[in-house]
Amino acid sequence: MSPLLSIDNLSAVSRRDGKPILRNVSLHVDSGTIHGLVGESGAGKSTISKIILGIVSGGVVVTSGSVMLGANDLVRMPEREKRVLIGSQMALIPQDPLTALNPGRRIGDQLTDSLRMWKGMGHKAAWARGLELLDHVAIRDPQRVMGLFPHHLSGGMRQRVLIAAAFAIEPKLLIADEPTTALDATVQKQVLQLLKRLQAEHGTAVVFVTHDLGVVAQICDAVTLLFQGKVMEQGTAETIFNTPSHAYTRALLAASPRYDDPAAGLNPIDDAVIAACRAEVAQFDGAQHA
Amino acid sequence: MPETLVETRGLVVDYAARRSLWGPANDATRVLRGVDLHIDTGEIVGIVGESGSGKSTLGRALLGLVPATEGEVLYAGHPLDAQPEGALSLRRQMQMIFQDPMSSLNPRHTIRTILTRPMLLHRVATSQAAADATVAAVLDRVGLPLAVLARYPHELSGGQRQRVGIARAVMLRPRFVLADEIVSGQDVSTQARVLVLLRELCAEIGMSLAFISHDLSVIRALCNRVYVLNGGVVVEEGPCETVFAAPQHAYTRALIDAIPLPVVGTGWLAA
Amino acid sequence: MVDTSLAQTPHRSWQPALRAALGDPKVLVGGGFIAFLIVLALGADLLAPHDPLAQDLMLGSLPPVGMAGAEPGYWLGTDDLGRDVLSRFIHGTRTALTVAFIAATIAAVVGTFVGLLAGYFGGWVDAVVSRLIEIWMAFPAVLLSILIVAILGSGVHSVIFAIAIIDWTRFARVVRAETMAQRQTDYVTAGQVLGFSRLGILAGEILPNVLWVVLGLFTLELGLAVVIEAILSFVGLSVSSDTPTWGGMIAQGRGIIYQAWWVFALPLAGLLATVLAFNQLGAGLRRSLDPVMQR
Description:
Shape of chain C: flat
Number of domains of chain C: 1
Helix content of chain A: 40-55%
CATH superfamily of chain C: MetI-like
Order of helices and strands of chain A: EEEHEEHEHHHHEHEHEEHHH
Helix content of chain C: over 70%
Number of domains of chain A: 1
CATH topology of chain C: MetI-like fold
Strand content of chain A: 15-25%
Number of helices of chain C: 11
Low-confidence stretches of chain C: 1-6
Largest sheet of chain A: 6 strands, mixed
Mean pLDDT of chain A: 92
CATH class of chain C: Mainly Alpha
Oligomer: heterotrimer
Structural class of chain A: alpha/beta
């Protein structure tokens, strides 16, 4: 079976200075799996998720490659068709639950937007479905919450609402962009558990953007590790964490602090490793120009 | 026997009721509900808690930036406002590193102004030239090129700004430094470098460090001892080895359980 | 450790910023026009082709050169009393700029001082200042200035006083809000931790940030002061009627707009251009000199 999302040889440059942002990135996500997109700031993980969602800013120009959702190439589709495809088959769980919800609209209205728009439901049917969705993400008293405004809810509750909204249209592909970074640790765990449960129930494919290797190890089936827009290592979570082959992967793992090991977290990434990564990127750029 | 440097006894902090000329008055909010804490000379102490635990307020109270409603904060055995060597001397000895280096550096001062003004104030340097020399040495120590002196904060990278913040805090050779969430949101590689630098600086200057964080893993890497704060009270305290190996309080256990380790197949999510 | 005794610690040079300012089109155009006005004001006696007060009814309502019936030497025509419009305009620049600079400076200094105090100390100081500003702003500005000049008697001093006493609130209000925002920043807390006194923080941390906001307001106020002076002249409450002013010319020109529109048009154009030039100069200076605007 072919993967649901296939990104092949995707390259992008900055419109302003022509500098490469993505360098020949390929990744494949099967239905029912969670694919971790990992890297430090500037690695290009957010750019990839924005290209998939068709919300990449005008400052980024895709120069080559394809992003296939099923049989459709999102890079080459007419804008209108692309918007319909993305809107009806993809959903986003954003990083910041504070700003992702409109402070002036009730939870119920925001939750049912996509149902009315993409599922053609009437107001009543959408509202009833919204109640079910809130119940499904373990929000107590959904009837009351539907009528509240975002500022009435805690950060964790808002993220639950956003997850409910994301699953409302039963998307084939879900983009989770650092969905738990803004949350407290105990809340993060609950939200991740919820996300995993819903994903498994619906057989959704998930692209999970994060910089937290711990979260990746616990929730992802496959991992792509990026450095300056280039894939450094790619594979199943088992391979990446148990037998990492790239020096950068090993260095990142060694630098991550762990509560069960006081020595971890005090091993900064060696300058030589960073230099080797940069050289790899430079070599790639050189080969592109030649 | 190590000497206690900073201490709180039964510290209670309320955020004052807001009075308005005509509008309704808000009630005071109790943020800290009786905190006893001590930090010894040369010790690195972690203060961990989730949002709303009162950890930032506790940190600010240690520096005398928020007043105690009840109880007291002692520095070297004396209340903060009754220091034998005077208030200015106390300010030299207690410093702070901020969470967001961008907002803690005045956007309209060059790094040079930011670093030399405190030295002249405290007469650590008696002339601009002497201040320049000391600043140059400190910059070198935290791994920044001299060229940053002529820059404004927004002209530096995030990591460089963080180092300027550290340089400013240690430059006066303080005895106590408070670090409030200084590595949260940072990349793993930057984070490790900052932790190592802090550790080395503590040893070199012989300063004590209170390290506030929501991240137990970072606390484990850096600290000797840890206070776990929840709802404005210390629920557990002890050396890191003991607390992490055998947490006594249910909240501490919940906090530890909530941390995902970078190891596959632990079944963490199912637990 | 490096040998720091030899280390040349780099200073921020002012030259690049200054060069940027002098190369900024807004500064060039706005500043150039204001500089031109200053030259006109200072050298009015030499530059004006005629005595601005000399009447010659034989030469009344002459149109500007280039129109039918114009008289050479009277470049922009004459008014109904035969006074040279250009000369009157040049002399009017004096009053306009004097009033603008002095009044705006007083308003800025007083307003900034009060705003800083209210914003930094808060509490009852702020409560008193805020109420005062609210009451002040409830008065219609133009009517209030007319009232003040009517009470004090006309003259440049009264006009300056009237403008300053009304417009200090513009500065106080904005500076108060900005100071309050500054007081919440981490770098002000850092200043406290480092041991700076309240005054040291106010002068060393807050003021350098507030001044840029004041600069913007100040250039706005300069333009505004020129307009208010013109309004007071228009209603005959500014300087004595034998001193030429833009407002006075506008008032006079309004009466004879069908016979000699140029009497009205030149000072009006000058007024518009001056306000615009001050605003452009302010925006240009801020854009090229304020470190925060450089990102």
